[in-house]
Specification:
The complex is a heterodimer of chains A (about 140) and B (about 350). Chain A has one domain (about 5-130): Rossmann fold (3-Layer(aba) Sandwich), CATH 3.40.50.280. Helices cover about 45% and strands about 20% of the residues of chain A. Chain A has 5 helices and 5 strands. The longest helix of chain A has 14 residues, at about 70-80. The longest helix of chain B has 30 residues, at about 275-305. Chain B is globular and about 65 Å long. Chain B contains 13 helices and 8 strands. Classes of the chains: A alpha/beta (about 140), B alpha/beta (about 350). The interface of A and B includes residues 31, 33 and 44 of A. Bound molecules: guanosine-5'-triphosphate (GTP) and magnesium ion.
């Protein structure tokens, strides 16, 4: 029977080098039955939001290791609002200092996951965040 | 008119994206919207891009789209990747190679998972192409799953089918299965910067020469009528289309002008020879056959009911009944009910 699949964009903004973490999470989400659009390295906020629009995703997962999260996150949220995509959830994985987490959440980031986070927890959270949309 | 349709026709990209989701989810809204959009379809040139995994299909789509944009044509792209049979999920990675196209509103890229269908496309790819067509894109590029042998469905969806191969993908000749050559309107040897590229060109030439000795390329999919016997690509006077071999370096844009020229030549050929009209009829016929099959089967299963189906399967398993006899009995049963 046809069904509504969760669609997730996994993107790696910023200029730092590798996307190992992003690939691991992309595969874990696939194994949890989601359709993951993987866009690769060095994505600008504009590119990320444009891809989210064209792909009609429920959620964006950002992998940020560069320390630029406090600049990238608000810009992406702003672009989402401008494009009438405010309902798209955004989560961040990476190395985020404790003191920034509250600020990110306050600006509308739905979840922040450090290096020790389990993929099972992330998947459960995603289902909670956008699961209702999948009914 | 549905609001979604109105928005899409007015160029609203979000409406197009939403409709594409409805289409893939086989949501009732998609059916209604596609019915309203159907009169606006049939304009775009549909180009299929198929070939072995890693041959450079996405990179080629990227540079082709670029070249079309430079000529002022708008481009819709559908990139299909396989759904994992274990989880039902998918990683859709073709956009990685299409990053140059970001920020251009004349391009729309959509990734699609196969969701269990074989043959290199999703079951709903045809409808997704209709949506892009009705949204007004001049050229639609369709990248299939890279499986190297069974993705022949693309020939049914594309006016012009590119089969992309590259040197060094294991056993060159083995990778190029006969079925895939049969559907090629243009052969592309990508990664021509690799030293062994000429071996691939030679192997393809040899296989093409073999293929040419056979009769015109027939069409096997979804036949409803016996009268459309003319092979799709053979002209009445016997002068059919000969697939050219184009060498390219997709990542550097080399050979892309030649490829565009070959695609134009193929389109001209289709128009001049009347093949385009024939393609259109064959395409519509195959699509109708697929839809009928699906609808009739669903209807039939509903009419027969699960209990009868179960007992029939039991009897088949016990070898009390042959499959062909089972079909006759089931058909008989529903015929009686109908009268
Ligand atoms: N040397 C060389 N590398 C190329 C060329 N075209 C593509 N590549 C590289 O080949 C790899 C695969 O390219 P893709 O465009 O992703 O190939 P694909 O056929 O779309 O792959 P799948 O969708 O996974 O089947 C990438 O690393 C490209 O950078 C080329 O012309 N020359
Ligand atoms: Mg690809």
């Amino acid at each position: 029977m046809p069904e509504r699949k969760l669609r997730v964009l996994v993107a790696k903004p910023g200029l730092d080098g590798h996307d190992r973490g992003a690939k691991v999470i992309a595969r874990a989400l696939r194994d949890a039955g989601m359709e993951v659009i993987y866009t690769g390295l060095r994505q600008t906020p504009e590119m990320i939001v444009e891809a989210a629009l064209q792909e009609d995703v429920d959620l964006i997962g950002l992998s940020i290791l560069s320390g630029a999260h406090m600049a990238l996150a608000p810009r992406i949220l702003e672009l989402l609002r401008e494009n009438d995509l405010a309902e798209v959830r955004v989560i961040i994985g990476g190395i985020i200092p404790e003191e920034d987490i509250a600020a990110l959440k306050a600006m509308g980031i739905a979840g922040v996951y450090g290096p020790g986070s389990s993929t099972a927890d992330i998947i459960a959270d995603i289902h909670r965040m956008v699961g209702a949309a999948a009914e | 008119m549905l609001e979604l349709v109105e928005q899409l026709r007015a160029g609203n990209r979000r409406a197009l994206a939403r409709l594409l989701s409805y289409i893939q989810d086989e949501h009732p809204e998609a059916r209604a919207a596609l019915a309203e959009l159907y009169p606006f379809t049939g304009r775009a040139h549909r180009i299929g891009v198929t070939g072995s995994p890693g041959a450079g299909k996405s990179s080629l789509v990227n540079s082709l789209a670029h070249a079309y944009r430079a000529r002022g044509r708008t481009v819709g792209i559908i990139a299909v990747d396989p759904t994992s049979p274990f989880s039902g999920g998918a990683v859709l990675g073709d956009r990685i190679r299409m990053r140059d196209l970001a920020g251009d509103r004349g391009v729309f890229i959509r990734s699609m998972a196969t969701r269990g269908s074989l043959g290199g496309l999703a079951r709903t790819t045809g409808d997704a192409v209709h949506a892009l067509d009705a949204a007004g894109f001049d050229v639609i590029l369709i990248e299939t799953v890279g499986a190297g042998q069974s993705e022949v469905d693309i020939a049914r969806e594309a006016h012009t089918t590119l089969v992309v191969e590259a040197p060094g993908l294991g056993d060159d000749v083995q990778a190029i299965k006969a079925g895939i050559l049969e559907i090629a309107d243009i052969l592309v040897v990508n990664k021509a910067d690799r030293p062994d590229a000429q071996n691939t060109v030679r192997a393809l030439k040899a296989m093409l020469d073999l293929g040419r000795s056979q009769a015109g390329r027939a069409w096997h999919h979804g036949r409803l009528l016996d009268q459309s016997e003319t092979p799709l690509h053979a002209e009445p006077d016997g002068e059919g289309w000969q697939p050219p071999i184009i060498e390219s370096v997709a990542t550097a844009g080399t050979g892309i002008d030649d490829l565009l020229a070959a695609i134009d030549a193929h389109r001209d050929y289709l128009q001049r020879s009347g093949s385009l009209a024939r393609w259109e009829r064959v395409h519509i016929e195959a699509d109708l056959a697929a839809r009928l099959q699906q609808a009739l089967l669903a209807d039939f299963v509903r009419a027969v009911g699960p209990a009868t189906l179960r007992t029939t399967i039991d009897r088949l398993a016990r070898r009390e009944l042959a499959p062909s006899a089972a079909v006759d009995q089931l058909l008989d049963r529903t015929n009686h009910q109908a009268h």
